[in-house]
Amino acid sequence: MVSSQTVINIMEKLAPKKLAMEWDNPGLAVGDFAGKVSKILVALTVTPEVVHYAAESGFNMIISHHPMFFKPIKALRKDLPLGRMVYEAVKHDITIYSTHTNLDITENGVNDEMARVLDLEDIRVLKQTAEEPLKKIVVFVPRGYEDAVRNAMAEAGAGFIGNYSHCSFNIEGKGTFKPEKGADPFIGEEGKLERVDEVRIETIAPENFVRKIISAMLRVHPYEEVAYDIYPLENTGKIIGLGRVGKLRKRVSLKELCETVKMKLSADYVKVSGDLHKEISTVAVCGGAGGDLISAASFAGADVLITGDVKYHDALDAKAIDLAIIDAGHFSTENLVLPALAHYLAREIQALGEKVDIEIYQDKDPFVII
Fold it and tell me: What secondary structure letter does DSSP report for 340?
């Protein structure tokens, strides 16, 4: 059993709320951070059926992709679906938390999972929404301890540049200090100025990792008081954004790709716009409603955009620029992330030495073909 706060920390480690689009409303919707969690239900959308199933089956927490509240609430009435859901969740002490566009945008979120399921290669962000800020961390270490400190920082996420890890720069020099009354120095004596051979270690880190890196460094550093600096950088960080674009392993026709999408996304049907005989090699994807990424997909060199909820006029716009569209539906292009999300939660909770039962709600696309 863990606290709601622990689960939320794990979720925001994967998909920080700050990545969400301005209009979005992810986060804690019902409950509090101190609740005790022994069973988690992972669902695409919070519906009356989902809340009722959670209540009947003893779940303490629901984690959904779609937020429970999008618009300001003027009333909570038990005779309306939203009010009934809130009342039932509160009655059964169920915490409800969502991670929406931040899960779409983040690495290993909805769109990366969609690209992985479709076996795309050379995957990159389709439309940039942000750039990960970078920091330089500098720490001064007595000679002989630099390897331990450097490795601890690297294992916590420092020193990654492209496909290289453990990147740092090291300068030898002299450190001076005088332990005052009450100090318990690792080196030196109270009241005496010391000169020590030290190594200045410089490394780079994503802003999100800085606190973790400093904690790891302090745990292995031998000094009682550690001298370190953190500098902002203007270097280009990791690009963050909506959708993904990548290459197929081999060219296929648009018709063949439609069949592959149906099978791999477990979709009952797809809608397609474009020449079914057109050869496809570069594919753009966006889970959910991605019709507004048509221009971005074309600019990225994609032959096709796979998404959901494409409007009539958007399809005409895509046709005019020779971009094929496969509309696999909102449900099928997002529901695929739930197994990966449940697996991530189980792994992170287990790493804490705790155990929580996690189940995926088996929902269905509300649309059927007659």
Answer: H
